[in-house]
Amino acid sequence: MATIRSRVAPWLASRRGTDTGPVRVLVREDTDALRALVARDPVANVFIDSLLGHGGSAVPSQPGSVILGFFEHDGGDLASACWVGSNVVPIEVTAAQSTYYARWLVAHWQVHASIFGPAEAVLGIMAELSNAGISAQEVRVNQPLLTLAEPSPLTANPDLAVGRSGQFEEILLAAAAMFEEEVGYSPYLGGEENYRRRVAWLLNNGHTFSHCEPNGEVIFKADLGAVTAKATQIQGVWMNPRYRGLGLSAGYMAAVVDLAQALAPVTSLYVNDYNARARASYAKVGFEQVGTFATVLF
């Protein structure tokens, strides 16, 4: 895999007139159509569904973010969509449609942290970006999407609990360590204050679960990165290195499922295919694969 930062060919700016075909930026009047599109797969689309739950509109409240839509013809139905902000997230996008979204991204290029979502769409977008001279730090082409819609058959670790705001500094250290292990660089490169706000938001909204030593040091943590009435998505799973290899992860994950299913009936996550240890643990907990994601890191 490429290990360099995203780079754009010097001639890329000249492509701003590229035809993006049936793709346009969604407006408020498109909100109902977007909700119907997201509802086709509440698990795969949990990220955008959670954002719609907070903002309530096809026009994002986050500065600098837009949602694109693909329309079969002028005045036709919304066939797919794509969130474009600090990350790019395709929604019900086919391989053929991905080309048009990628052309829009090229024509309006800014560096994004990642593209993630269903593999066919993500890899289709990245192929077109590569043709335009945009490279990635890493492309993870096979990330099984797993779900569990019932209690885990395993006994949950009773020590895992909803995190408290007073644990912020310890949780922040664990979250930053997890991020750096996962992507290879510090989360603070994108702005320390932004990352601190994200960790605090998860903690203050009851979406971070943890078990800590009496001195506050985190033993295990996990977040619900997206929460809707139908599904949650687990992110940010981290075990303190001093406790790894002791067979504790499955019990902690069973506890995460219990806490998550108090908020929504289906619990989901996606995992790198090469992470055999994590995949084995998730299988013990009861997770089953329902799809395949991919992630592009810039």
List the main descriptive attributes of the protein structure presented here.
298 residues; 26% strand; globular; 12-stranded mixed β-sheet; alpha+beta; Aminopeptidase; single chain
Structure description:
The structure is a single chain. The protein is an alpha+beta fold and 298 residues long. The N and C termini lie close together (12 Å). The chain is globular. Strand 10, helix 7 and strand 11 (266-270) form a beta-alpha-beta unit. Helix 3 (95-107) packs across helix 4 (119-131). The chain has eight helices and twelve strands. The chain is 32% helix and 26% strand. The chain folds into two domains: 12-136, Aminopeptidase (3-Layer(aba) Sandwich), CATH 3.40.630; 161-292, Gcn5-related N-acetyltransferase (GNAT) (Aminopeptidase).
Helicity, as a percent range:
25-40%
**What is the CATH fold-level name of the largest domain?**
Aminopeptidase
Please report the number of helical segments: 8
Low-confidence stretches: 1-17
CATH superfamily of the largest domain: Gcn5-related N-acetyltransferase (GNAT)
CATH class of the largest domain: Alpha Beta
CATH architectural arrangement of the largest domain: 3-Layer(aba) Sandwich
Sheet with most strands: strand arrangement? 1-2-3-4-5-12-6-11-10-9-8-7
* Average pLDDT figure: 91
Strand content: 25-35%
Rough shape? Answer: globular
**Order of helix and strand elements from N to C terminus:** EHHEEEHEHEEHHEEEHEHE
Give the count of structural domains. 2
Spatial separation of the terminal alpha carbons: 12 Å
Largest beta sheet, briefly? Answer: 12 strands, mixed
User: Which structural category do the helix and sheet elements fall into?
Assistant: alpha+beta
C-alpha Rg, in Å? 19 Å
The count of β-strands is 12
